[in-house]
Amino acid sequence: MVYCTELSALDTRKSRRPGILLMPSGRRGGVCMFARNIRRVVGGVSAVAMAAGLAVTVGAGAASAAEGKKTWNDGNTKFTRTISNVDPREGDTITVKTKFYKEFGGVAEYIYEVKDWHPSCLTVQSAKVNGKSYSIAGKGDDWARVDGNLTKWPIQPILNPRSQTYEFKYKVGADCDRNVGLKTGLSYDSSLGGGSYKTKGPNITVKMNNTSTTLGPVPGAVVGAPVTLSANVTGGHEGDKVGFYDGDTKIGDGRLNDDGAATIEWTPETDGAHTLSAQFSETSRAKGSQSATQTVTVAGPEVTATTLTGPTTALTGNEVVFTAQVTPSPADGTVQFRDGGIDLGPAISVNPDGTATLAHTFDTAGPHEIVAVYSGIPGVLGSTSANHTVAVSEGTATTLTGPTTALTGNELVFTAQVTPNPADGTVQFKDGGIDLGPAISVNPDGVATLAHTFDTAGPHEIVAVYSGTPTFTESTSAAHTVEVSVPEVTTTTLTGPTTAKAGDELVFTAQVTPNPADGTVQFKDGGIDLGPAISVDPDGIATLAHTFDTAGTREITAVFTGTPAFIGSTSANHTVAISEFTTTALTGPTTALTGDEVAFIAQITPNPAGGTVQFKDGGIDLGPAVAVNPDGTATLPHTFDTVGPHQIAAVYSGAPGFVGSTSVIHTVTVSAPDPEDVATTTELTAPESAEKGAAVDLIATVSPSPAGGTVQFFDGATPIGAPVDVVDGRATLSHAFAVAGDRNVSAVYGGTEGFRGSTAQPVTVTVTDDGTGPGPDSGSADNVFGS
């Protein structure tokens, strides 16, 4: 496609778009454009920037809007920007139009996009191109953009269209600076490179908000009672300050909320007429305003009288009730009862009928002057009752405590507590009407104690008689009955198993003789109770079912507590030897070749730290028994000399505290080797020590180097991760041990085509607790690789 037009001597702008070829048109002063790539139509050369013509007009639009206009030229393009109102107020909507006009003598230009630059406090609402609504392609804090395409918006010097008009509509925001010129402008991209006039204008000056302030009604104002004053302001902003006034006296300031309302609490101090008003203070964005005054009549507070009633005499320790009546009945408030100048507890809320009641117990004798003080509430005055005199006397009460059963010949203790504490006087203990020894002085705590031994059986009625003092009355306790009997001697015999395995439930039986038909038996392991005490059945027997969960020797006893008629007794020690169960796990290859050595590993759980393992093929011992390692494993290297299935088992002998066990059968299929297969040897390399939780490398070297196969590493009888491929004769496993102690590590090469398998000699790795392990499992295989 070819575009030709006349070229003014001033049109020297260079195209910034790729794919455009500018050539003479064959006409004087003309050029042609060849668009090789229609993705973008671009212009040829641009005119030398001529001095831009500038025209600014400000006119009055509708509703007193002051229109602003600015015109300038850049080359042969004329720009006219018109703003519908350059003196708007917050919330107004303004329209910004920019007309692009191509004057005669220029070249055709295609406009790709137009950005309108505006103050960041304006919010774009919509856009139009040539009077028709158009989608906004993008926007930022201070710009909005419309996009065309390569050919949509041409402006031409001769043919139509010679102009394009872009219109953006904005809403004026609250955060615009006031009475300050705010810059506007545009930038655009076109086939001639476009232009940037971000602050060309016209400027916008946002006017101060006009405001109006209205003071809300103030009903029912009373001296001393808080009342809320409210004002509504139009044109203000949240957080702006409103001052409230009583005449010329400022009451205080409130802040506008997002609804334009401000409140403040006012407590009138005087009655009568008060002239109230609200004043909105001028801010950087809004003019000040003042409400009309409002005359409010403040009523005086209501007067009350408080009357106190209650008993005129009382005893210490006895509860008495006082009642205060407030007249006229207030709607709220509290009454503080006082004894002299001391508060009797917290203040008490007044009931709807104007009463408040106090239940009180005096703890000291003498005259007490009681008053009731009503607190008052806003608009209601407080008041104080006349003194109410109460004569308080000290009374005493004697409480007797002691056992309710006893055996002849056993010393008992009786305690008398005199309340309130007289700190003087004596207590005479009596059995029936007979004194039990001399009277006993009351100690400083008001207590008297008697130690006594009954020598006759039967019921005994015990009382304690306090003598009294000049300031404390005498008192007698209630009768305290003691059933006294002659005790019978008992013996307790304990029976039960003498040996057991950990986890087995055992039954112990205690026989109390003669049969007490009552009481309990506490079974003990050493000095430790085995559960709660067990009641003796009608046959004098108590039975305990118990399971020991650890091995060792236990000394069991049964302790009969006794009853009022039977003396308690303890059995002789009964010794039980507890052994722990074990399980034996056998691991090893499932196939083998005659003549090749293989390894079988037995893992004893829990670790007995002793004993031996006898490996067997069918019922035949495979060599002598193998001692168990400190980690609970035993390893047997063995070479089969006959083909066929072999049934291998591992039999643990047991050890002190541990029961023997036998593994499940492990079947190995033995075949004759291929004569051409190469025998191998495997050597295991591992560190002598490692920290728990820290990874170390376990390396198995197979010689001669096979062409494949895998190595399985073991921790005792437990495989460590998956088999590891052999590469260049080596298999390496990075492993973190999770359990401290000596770990018996081994490696078994499984063989491959042309190479026989082989087993490395086990290596002991001492794992310490210095590191932090990954958990209670056997460890982790972090990196598995051949090398």
Describe this structure in words.
Helices cover 0% and strands 52% of the residues. Mean pLDDT is 87; it is low at 1-63 and 772-782. It is mostly beta strands. It folds into six domains: 55-205, ntegrin, alpha v. Chain A, domain 3 (Immunoglobulin-like); 212-298, Immunoglobulin-like (Sandwich); 305-393, Immunoglobulin-like (Sandwich), CATH 2.60.40; 397-485, Immunoglobulin-like (Sandwich), CATH 2.60.40.10; 491-579, Immunoglobulin-like; 676-787, Immunoglobulin-like. It contains no helices and 77 strands.
Task: Summarize the SSE layout with pairings.
Elements lengths: L1 E5 L13 E5 L5 E6 L19 E6 L5 E9 L2 E7 L9 E10 L6 E9 L4 E8 L2 E3 L3 E2 L3 E5 L5 E3 L7 E10 L8 E2 L2 E6 L4 E3 L6 E2 L6 E4 L11 E8 L6 E6 L2 E7 L5 E6 L5 E9 L8 E2 L3 E5 L6 E5 L3 E3 L3 E9 L6 E6 L2 E2 L4 E2 L5 E7 L4 E9 L8 E2 L3 E6 L3 E5 L3 E3 L3 E9 L6 E6 L2 E2 L4 E2 L5 E7 L4 E9 L8 E2 L3 E6 L5 E5 L3 E3 L3 E9 L6 E6 L2 E2 L4 E2 L5 E7 L4 E9 L8 E2 L3 E6 L3 E5 L3 E3 L3 E9 L6 E6 L2 E2 L4 E2 L5 E7 L4 E9 L8 E2 L3 E6 L9 E5 L3 E3 L3 E9 L6 E6 L2 E2 L4 E2 L4 E7 L4 E9 L8 E2 L3 E6 L11 E7 L1
Parallel strand pairs: 28-36, 38-46, 48-56, 58-66, 68-76
Antiparallel strand pairs: 1-3, 2-3, 4-5, 5-6, 6-7, 7-14, 8-12, 8-13, 8-16, 9-10, 9-14, 11-12, 15-18, 16-17, 19-20, 20-23, 21-22, 21-24, 24-25, 24-26, 27-29, 29-33, 30-31, 30-32, 30-34, 34-35, 34-36, 37-39, 39-43, 40-41, 40-42, 40-44, 44-45, 44-46, 47-49, 49-53, 50-51, 50-52, 50-54, 54-55, ...
